[in-house]
Amino acid sequence: MSVDLARRQGVVELKQFTRSREAVVFTMAFPVIMILIFASIFDDEIAPGVNYTQYFITGMIATGLMTVGFQSLAIQIPIERDKGVLKRFRGTPMPKWVYFAGKVFMVAGIGVAEVALLLAVSIGFFDLEPPASVGKWLTFAWVSVLGLSACTLCGIAFSSVPRNARGATAVVTPVALVLQFISGVFFVFTDLPTWMQQVAAIFPLKWMCQGLRSVFLPDSFAAAEPAGSWELGKVALILSAWCVVGLVVCIRTFTWQNKYSR
Question: Where is the ABC transmembrane type-2 domain (predicted)?
């Protein structure tokens, strides 16, 4: 019965998302638009057999997952909190975890659609080579799942930071943009200042980008990474650690009504 409630809540969340044209355009279309713009302008070779377009596309796939998991939830939940949606939900006999399960269901559905769309555009228009082996497809799967899980939990946790719904976008969007600039999405990671690389290495997006580069770029490019290898074990460890951190912060800080309006 509870599982069915979670599924129904997830369907409701997906319907609400698709009915908001602004959310659909920003979440789904923004990474595609960025790929179309940047990949059309920059096509320089950054390493033997690797051009900027290939490098940038892997970063935008990671960014798409971050947008779906972190950015959308960190903005959406404060809006629902301000509108009293969370307070009303808490007053129902429905288990609290069903609300979060619905969000996870929504993020998973949108995340799959986002990745499929980005891959279709990248492979169809910019000659991105799909993963060449079963092993690379498996790496693609676990990096995406771990990365999306970490971003989802961090998004729920960060939703307690904005003081109200009006400030949510202003608080969350700069954080997401800064992470993109320092994590090797728009620029080759090793071209960034050392201190910037060290800051980026704290957060999930850098490791999501690195893990996806191991899937779509030639193995020879691993030598161009800071450690001279893909460090997939470290990618898995740090993304898993962020899942734990996000979950702990969610449990300790999540509130069902705006604490600043009391």
Answer: 22-257
Tokens describing residue 22: 């602004």
Q: Where are the alpha helices (DSSP H) in 134-182?
A: 134-158, 165-182
Whole-structure pTM value: 0.93
User: Residue 93 corresponds to which tokens in the numbers above?
Assistant: 């006999």
**Helical ranges in the chain per DSSP H:** 2-19, 21-24, 30-41, 52-66, 72-82, 85-90, 96-126, 134-158, 165-182, 194-200, 204-216, 232-253
In this structure, the number of other CB atoms found within 10 A of the CB of residue 106 comes to 25
**Domain-wise residue ranges, the chain:** 2-261
65-90 pLDDT, tens digit per residue, is 999 999 999 999 999 999 888 888 88
Strand-pair category, 50-51 with 45-47: antiparallel
- Least Cα distance to 247 among 133, 176, 151 occurs for 151
